[in-house]
Amino acid sequence: MEERATFNEEFIKEKRRQDMRHQVLTFSMLIIFTLISFGMVMSDLNAMFVRMVIILFAVVQVGFQLYYFMHMNEKGHGMPSLLFYGGCFAGFLTVLGLVVLTWW
Amino acid sequence: MTEQDIMNPKKMPLQPEKATLEGKNKFLGFWFFLGGEAVLFASLFGTYLALNGSLNGGKSAEEMFGLPLVFIMTMLLLTSSLTSVYAMHHLRNNDFKRLQLWMSITVILGLGFLACEIYEFYHYITDYGFTFRSSAFGSAFYTLVGFHGGHVVFGLAWITALIVRNAKRGLNLYNAPKYYIASLYWHFIDVVWVFIFTVVYLMGVL
User: Fold this and answer.
1) Could you tell me if A87 and A66 lie in one domain?
2) Which residues are listed as membrane-spanning (chain A) (predicted)?
């Protein structure tokens, strides 16, 4: 029984180490996305195209933050997701409403 | 779970931040709060997008914003997000010293971000006369970016208070949720900043 407990502990520690490696990988991805975004804005590419891409990159970056840094990929995040994305949906409608009103 | 188990746990559970009823409630309640924060910032973003062309004769975003400073601020905040992930890693490993250390590094990086932002606002106000009252663009800009800066200030005060208050206490099931929630808040600040540097600064100079 004692032996099994230590084995289990080792397993958990190893899993956490692995999780942490994924977090560092996530961090490097975020840095790369940020660099590409800044680089594209300073380049001579078509402005509308750049706008689309950097907004897409922002959404992807936020996804990484939510699912890795904020642990939403772990179990037991069903209700938090519902509550948080509910807010995001209301926020999306707000932005859409304001933008459509002024840009049309 | 008795008071004794919470304040002096014999063995740390796998997820100490959600081991008590209070911890579970805080976790759920805080995500709900973050949903509300998302609505708040979305409203400010929408307002900014609607008003950023109303210059009232002042300088435009393209003429004022400098990307190097924004890049430094982004790196500072992004790195502070990673350091608070390290803090949570050590929280779950029940390594209180390292938890405190990484939280402290997070605070230092956050202070660096804040210093840059104060310098930036100071620069706009003194060199361009771009203030909260100079145009609708100014009002929308300072409300959005300032609200984010205000969140940074609050987050720094919160994390500092946690570090100081628990310095002699050590980690237990009573304060583990507090650290976890503060780190969620800090990540959310970075999430908002990703949209700010994209929508306000990058799209501003495009």
Assistant:
1) no
2) 24-42, 48-70, 82-103
- The residue among A82, B206, B184, A37 whose CA lies nearest residue B192 is B184
Q: Does B172 touch chain A (CB under 8 A)?
A: no
- Do residue A8 and residue A44 come from a single domain? yes
Contact B206 A50 (CB under 8 A): yes
- Give pLDDT, residue B65: 95
Using the predicted structure, report yes or no on whether residue A2 has a pLDDT greater than 60.
Answer: no
**B39 at interface of A, judged by CB pairs closer than 8 A:** yes
Tokens (6 digits) for B75: 């790196």
pLDDT in tens, B101-130: 999 999 999 999 999 999 999 999 999 999
Torsion from C-alpha of B84, B90, B92, B97, nearest 10 degrees: -110
In terms of Cα–Cα distance, which of A8, A16, A41 is closest to B71? Answer: A41
Q: Hey, which residues 174-193 in chain B have their CB within 8 Å of chain A?
A: 184, 187-188, 190-191
Name the residue in chain A with its Cα closest to that of B94: A13
Residue A1 has pLDDT above 60, yes or no: no
How many inter-chain contacts (A to B, CB under 8 Å) are there?
128
What's the gap in Å between the CA of B82 and the closest CA on chain A? Answer: 7
Give A-chain residues touching B50 at CB under 8 angstroms. Answer: 98-99, 101-102
Burial class (CB in 10 A: 0-12, 13-18, 19+), A70: buried
How far apart, in whole angstroms, are the C-alpha atoms of residue B28 and residue B173?
Answer: 17
Does B17-205 carry CATH code 1.10.10.60? no
Do A46 and A32 lie in one domain? The reply is yes
